[in-house]
Write a structure and sequence with these properties.
Largest interface: A-B, 53 and 56 residues
Radius of gyration of chain B: 24 Å
Helix content of chain A: 40-55%
Structural class of chain A: alpha/beta
Number of helices of chain B: 14
Number of strands of chain A: 17
Order of helices and strands of chain A: HHHEHEHEHEEHEHEHEHEEHEEHEEEEE
Distance between the termini of chain B: 43 Å
Largest sheet of chain A: 7 strands, mixed
Radius of gyration of chain A: 31 Å
Largest sheet of chain B: none
Number of strands of chain B: 0
Distance between the termini of chain A: 83 Å
Number of helices of chain A: 12
Oligomer: heterodimer
Helix content of chain B: 55-70%
Strand content of chain A: 15-25%
Shape of chain A: globular
């Protein structure tokens, strides 16, 4: 039989040692070591507070508190309007533009707004809409991301017939979609055309850069309008386009911006959810920019020339007034500069007086409704004629909705 | 298998003397005196945490639930610091996650894909592998399911649904299986491989959805051709939650049974504890790794297939929403135990379900929810030290018991 090796034996493998005594000694020893006090206190803590009894008590108390706290909240009397954004509402881009619209209607009498940001285009947005209806009492919801429409808004609209869903994207089809749904969009390429004029005239190299997410019709239309605007004022101007592949890719956007500036591009613009990265990078490298979605002049006080901005405040105010009055509202609503759906940012310091005059002249034609961007003869950048001489496609022309080409003067490919 | 985080339960390391591979010492049977700490300990489940016998389970839950409470308390403190009333916050969180029948279903709906993507990390975690590829496997599974759905279009809803789920699981399994095979036979680090495969998967999805598989009608949101409303998987009876929840629960239960109640699972845990010991005992380590990673990928692939079959009806960029990465979080909080994945998924689902209400009611940014998830993650990992302490206590008990038995036997002899 092995003999006890005294209190300093820490092996615990001998039954003849009084374990309690040994522990006590070990505890005394431990106090002498650095860090021991902390360790003891942790063990004491866990013994005291994590014991089965105290744990069960805490659980019961917690449930009781939670149960009493979850009393129903009464639905508010003013019209509750929900806004759902796919990204952060302070992104200097797509979502901020919508949030500014929301802020505008928050000032209206009898309106209360509820906002939720960073809602992905999954079942999560369905639940956010339901939650706004069930828990906030929302009667009108603006789910602002393009991808929210099918199947998410359609599904919720069928389930909640008393709630109105107004979607940004212009996707409504009469007879096919529920009647409590509407969809609106703006001809922002008109503002892009004006921005293109400013860019084409201000650029020293005549090389413009466009960083875009995906080669989809909406994006191609902006690239083409920007380029047509630039070349209307400066026929030598070209636009080099880089597609990043997705709506929010700050690292790729920065790489693209650097690459374009290295190639001699001196005016950058973008169609991504948040042009913030690109605008800041351009300012740092001494290049100029035109903005998109919202006003980014605060990010580039020197190089911000102008920009194509949404003016959702006007659209939302109209819609809320229609809904409040119980009137029928247009299910498909579109408009451009003339209708106040979009606007051009105030010109920056680098824009000359002559350039301003030319840009304002184009803007005036848009306001008068006499301007047509897409008219023949128009060639794409492979030399193919896409609009024959004499033909023209007005903003409402359905052919523009499925644009799949880049016009002459654009350096890049659609796929 | 380097990373300490990966081994789910601290398995007793064998003493160095029994480890030297090439010295010709027969590894088994090990003489009891040579390794007193290892050979005499019965091969029981040491985990006092999530696993273990039912009787011990409740006591074992003290530590993780204590950590959960600590995280909530820290979150309340944080809320108080930025000027919000923590009690009101807790109340709204309860209301948004479990407080009403609608909220609870919302929570379950959000938990469903997490259960499956968490298994993609938890199952290989038993082998000591750190797999971060749930996102890629989900995306590939969704793409595969969409293709299968279109191919089987004419054969009726049941065949379409079955084919889609099978295809999703197969493609997802193949995807992580690649990383598993590279790990087993080429020694490529599985963590980096699976992480990078995520980007490859997203690039492939974008390529196919914007190119060869694009539905010409999907103008501004490139997608594959929809499988049609008739072929969609519906909700579970009496619930506003699709069948993905049942699949998630089933997969977790199966995963738990496999890893805790079968020889396969035991072998996997031996590999997770010490690869060389497993090799010395003749376990087919390579095959175990490949099989487990294939199963892991199949789970995430199934999640992708369900996203397509039950929600979107088509494959597009909306598949990429981070379920795979949240699954990693769930797996680590669940300490790689498939059974624990269920409640953890529900808790994380509840947090995200209540996140909207916090944003709307208190004008808090979306990142608030991330703060809570981060706090939860940290406090659960920190609480592992307390687990370690309980574990040592239990080991000592078992050891002394075994010694006494040995001595008794000696006396009898």
């Amino acid at each position: 039989m092995p003999q006890s090796r005294g209190p300093h034996n820490r092996n615990h493998d001998d039954r003849s040692v009084d374990v309690t005594k040994l522990r006590r000694t070990a505890r005394l020893e431990n106090y002498a070591k650095p860090g021991a006090l902390y360790k003891r206190s942790m063990i004491n803590f866990s013994q005291r507070w994590l014991s089965p009894r105290s744990f069960c008590f805490a659980l019961v108390a917690g449930v009781a508190v939670a149960a009493t706290a979850s009393s129903p909240v009464r639905a508010a009397e003013p019209l509750t309007v929900g806004f759902i954004y796919v990204g952060p509402k302070t992104d200097y881009g797509y979502n901020q533009a919508h949030a500014q619209g929301a802020a505008a209607i928050a000032k209206l009498p009898g309106v209360k707004i509820r906002e939720e940001e960073m809602v992905p285009e999954t079942v999560a947005v369905q639940k956010t809409m339901e939650s706004m209806i069930n828990l906030d009492g929302a009667k009108l919801i603006f789910p602002t991301s393009f991808g929210y429409f099918d199947p998410h808004i359609l599904k919720m609209a069928q389930k909640y017939k008393d709630t109105t869903f107004l979607h940004c994207g212009g996707l409504y089809t009469e007879g096919k979609h529920p009647t409590n749904v509407g969809s609106y969009f703006g001809y922002i390429d008109e503002a892009e055309y004006v921005a293109g004029i400013v860019a084409g005239l201000t650029s020293k190299s005549g090389k413009l850069g466009f960083i875009a997410a995906k080669p989809i019709p909406q994006v191609l239309r902006n690239i083409n309008s920007f380029t047509l605007g630039a070349r209307s004022a400066n026929p030598k101007a070209t636009t080099t386009v880089i597609f990043t592949g997705d709506w929010s890719m700050p690292v790729k956007e920065a790489e693209a911006a650097n690459s374009l500036i290295d190639q001699g591009v001196d005016v950058l613009t973008a169609h991504v959810d948040s042009p913030k990265t690109i605008v800041e990078l351009a300012e740092r490298r001494g290049a100029m920019v035109t903005g998109y979605h919202a006003n980014q002049s605060a990010l580039a006080p020197k190089g911000y020339l102008t920009g194509a901005e949404w003016n959702w405040g006007k659209v939302y105010t109209d819609y809320v007034k229609w809904v409040q009055a119980g009137k029928t509202y247009p299910h498909l609503l579109r408009g451009g500069l003339k209708d106040g759906f979009v606007k051009v940012s105030p010109y920056g310091k680098a824009v000359s007086g002559d350039t301003k005059k030319k840009a304002d002249a184009a803007k005036a034609k848009f306001m008068a409704g006499t301007m047509v961007i897409y008219k023949g003869p128009l060639k794409d950048n492979t030399g193919k004629v896409v609009i024959a001489a004499g033909a023209e496609q007005k903003q409402t022309d359905i052919a523009l909705e499925s644009m799949d080409y880049l016009v002459e003067g654009v350096v890049g490919k659609t796929h | 298998m380097g990373l300490g985080l990966g081994s789910a339960e601290p398995v007793v390391p064998p003493p160095p003397s029994s480890l030297s591979l090439g010295d010709g010492v027969s590894p088994s049977p090990l003489p009891a005196q040579a390794s007193p700490g290892f050979a005499t300990v019965p091969s029981g489940d040491y985990s006092l945490g999530w696993g273990g016998a039912p009787g011990r389970a409740l006591i074992g839950l003290r530590v993780p639930l204590g950590a959960f409470a600590a995280a909530l308390a820290a979150f309340g403190l944080f809320m108080a610091v930025i000027g919000r009333n923590p009690l009101a916050i807790y109340q709204q969180m309860w209301r948004g996650s479990f407080g009403t029948w609608f909220s609870f279903q919302n929570t379950l709906l959000r938990a469903a894909p997490l259960m499956l993507t968490a298994l993609a990390t938890a199952l290989p975690g038993r082998l000591g592998l750190v797999v971060l590829g749930g996102e890629g496997a989900l995306v590939m599974g969704g793409l595969g399911a969409a293709v299968a759905g279109l191919a089987l279009h004419a054969h009726g809803p049941l065949v379409v649904a079955g084919g889609m789920l099978l295809a999703g699981a197969a493609v997802g399994g193949l995807w992580i299986g690649i990383a598993g095979a590279l790990r087993a036979y080429r020694g490529v680090n599985e963590t980096i491989a699976t992480l990078l495969l995520n980007y490859v998967a997203i690039a492939l999805l974008n390529h196919f959805v914007e190119g060869p598989l694009r539905d010409p009608a999907s103008l501004n949101k490139p997608s594959t051709t929809p499988i049609g409303d008739a072929n969609m998987i519906g909700n579970m009876p009496g619930l506003d939650v699709h069948w993905g929840l049942a699949w998630g629960l089933g997969a977790c239960l199966l995963g738990w049974f496999l890893m805790h109640r079968t020889l396969f699972g035991f072998a996997a845990r031996v590999v997770g504890g010490n690869v060389r010991t497993a090799l010395l005992n003749g376990l087919p380590v390579g095959r175990l790794i490949v099989l487990t990673t294939v199963m892991a990928g199949a789970c995430a692939g199934l999640a992708g297939a369900l996203e397509v079959a039950a929600i979107h009806g088509t494959a597009n960029a909306s598949l990429v929403t981070g379920y795979g990465y949240t699954g990693v979080l769930v797996a680590f909080i669940a300490r790689q135990n498939p059974l624990a994945v269920i409640p953890v998924s529900i808790i994380i689902g509840g947090i995200s379900a209540s996140g909207g209400l916090l944003q709307r009611g208190f004008d808090l940014p979306d990142a608030t929810v991330n703060v809570l998830q981060g706090l939860l993650f940290i406090s659960i990992l920190l609480s592992e030290t307390l687990h370690g302490r309980e574990l040592r206590k239990a080991k000592t008990k078992i050891k002394t018991k075994a010694r006494t038995n040995l001595k008794k036997q000696e006396v009898v002899a």
